[in-house]
Amino acid sequence: MLYVFFRGIFRVLFRTVFFLRAEGLENIPAEGAVVLCGNHTSNWDPPLMGSPLKRKVHYMAKAELFDVPVLGYILPRIAAFPVKRGGVSKESIRLSLQLLKDGEVMGIFPEGTRSNAGGMGKKGAASLALKSGAVVIPAAIIGNYKPFRQMKVVYGPPVDLSEFENSGSEGLEQATEKIMSTIRSMVKQHESK
Is the overall model pTM greater than 0.70, yes or no? Predict the structure, then answer.
């Protein structure tokens, strides 16, 4: 299975080149739907956020990447699916919700990009979590991907969004802000260590 193969390669790469340290792995549920939300500073973020986990993490990727020879073959086999530039299609949302209903893990960057790769628009993560009942796990990626300088990914405890259920658009904005402020505070806390 290509996902397991590439996850192994990325684990070795991140540990040897970026001295990657993963903390809070115990916060990732062993099963059931999870929306894994991280800060986004680099194209390396999706594999860095997902590779320490035992569970497969699904991501959206820019549709253009699927037209690149070799990469277009690999991406669907490593749990990525296309999203068109300029907005997330109904098909992408439907597929994301189906993955979550099937108890899978979706990796999302709520603040968008690197300016919108892997993002669903700012409210996407909260919307998917509230519609599917998925657990929201915040992830803080700390470091700047300089070789032989330590990178760290910290997985926090679940963000409780239950107060925002059935609360409409304003509630969705507040839920999104709760997720993003949690991630920002985790980054700030661990950067100072």
Answer: yes
